[in-house]
Amino acid sequence: MNWKENSRIARFWHKNAEENKIECDLCPRHCKLKHEQMGFCLVRGAVGQSLHTFNYGRAVQATLECMETEAIYHYMPGTKALSMGNIGCSMSCSYCQNWQTSQIKHLNPDNVKNYSPEQVVEIALLNNIEVISWTYNDPVVWHEFVVDTSKLAHKNGIKTLYKSALYIEEEPLNELLDVIDIFSISLKCMNPLIYKKYNKGELEPVLRGIKQIGKSGKHLEISQLIVTGLNDDGTDAIKTARWMLENLSDTVPLHLVAYHPAFRYSQPRTSVESLLNLRKLVFSEGIKHCYIGNVYSENVSNTLCKKCNYLLVERFGLTVNATGLNKNGLCNKCGERSVIINPLASKNKQSISHATHVPVQQFEFIWSEEINSLHVVLEENYNTDIFIMTERFPDGNIEQIPIHKGIERVIFSKNSINEKKILISSNNGAKLRIMPLSDRAHFPVLND
Ligand code: SF4
User: Fold this and answer.
1) Which residues have CB under 6 Å of ligand 1?
2) Non-local CB neighbours of 414 within 8 Å, separated by 6+ positions
3) With a threshold of 0.70, does the pTM exceed it?
4) Which of 77, 212, 224, 289 has the fewest CB atoms within 10 Å around its CB?
């Protein structure tokens, strides 16, 4: 990236007179920079006597996903979300699944697009999307764009979701609390030494930030990637549960999420057995809602009524069925108020009885033990409204997803334990490409 192009003055920095440097105050790293020097994240740097941001509006392709891809289970289940990911990161995790966009020195510029706040909001409005999610690599270093666009989103009645490892200082986080409705925070572990060695960060500022969100009353869910050989022996799960009980509440959900080998870390994928064992420990500590993520099994992520144990929300992978709740969020069996906020999800799919078009291309994708979801990439700009049609086997369900201008990718996942394959096609000549996902927060890129 040519650092001199397309930059603008950043927020949250000061002149460090003692060292004659520009100091960035956005994240706890506090990079002190001389003229033309970039910070650790490689997307903010000193230009003369100011700090500039170099990634304003620079993003990966706008993607249609859902709340569950963001590890949010208690807020508008099944609602579609416009996922927006940027470039750069204030941390560097050894097992980063999006390292080709988070670690700038590995970035292929072909994967980067430019958006304005107005364009992002327009895409959401055109596609009837109720939530914009700041996600994939971490949104912290996209702060100015996230705040500007989130303000505009609110003016247009769109909610905002922040999925982050929360390596951010108190003041910018306060600014986010004004414009973000839903926080999905990735707490890597409870071991400061692992944070330092494998995430290139510090644990304490992350915990401080989570407490700040907890006090604000904004919707908060915590996830923890369970990385084989790092935090899978139970110690961290117990410490995390105890810390949450002490500092948040027993009703904040904790997601234990399967890792897959990526970037510089090659230990095997987290086993389901290990995740289930950790979940038992978390429950025994007193956490009320603990979910298993990135696992395509039944009965690992359901929400039950706390009074009568009725199945309120059934989940399989990214598929949600919230039929146990009424529109006011009450249990359909006993009438008890549930923990689910606004359970009437927007519908992303329309079930149809037979194919309504002759496809230009048709892709068949066979699910495997490793791959249970994929991105469908719209290869070329399409000038008209289109839909993507899917047919599931062996059950034969056919659905179509309406797509309007601006959406460039759509996530699809295995819908049931018996599903073997999916057929995907589009209408109006829209050309598609299939990119398998290793897990729900993965954004596969060109040359992946
Ligand atoms: S946001 Fe970037 S430049 Fe600022 S302190 Fe953090 S790593 Fe350094």
Assistant:
1) 24, 26-27, 29-31, 39-41, 44, 90, 141
2) 296, 316, 317, 367, 372, 373, 422
3) yes
4) 212
